[in-house]
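Thread: quick sanity check before group meeting

JM: Hey all, I'm pulling together slides for Thursday and realized we never actually wrote out the predicted structure for the chain we discussed last week. Dropping the sequence here so it's in one place. If anyone has concerns about the input, flag it before I start.
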Amino acid sequence: PHTGTQTADARRDMNAEMLENVVRFLAGRTDLNRVA
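JM (edit): ok, ran it. Output follows.
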């Protein structure tokens, strides 16, 4: 992992964002940080 992801807070935030993207995908919506 990158240096900035070594803290528990950063990892928690990344996991929350990932889970929100999964929920949005399953609901048929666009993910939060889509790369075109």
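AS: nice. The radius of gyration is 12 Å. The chain has a mean pLDDT of 82.
JM: adding both to the slides.
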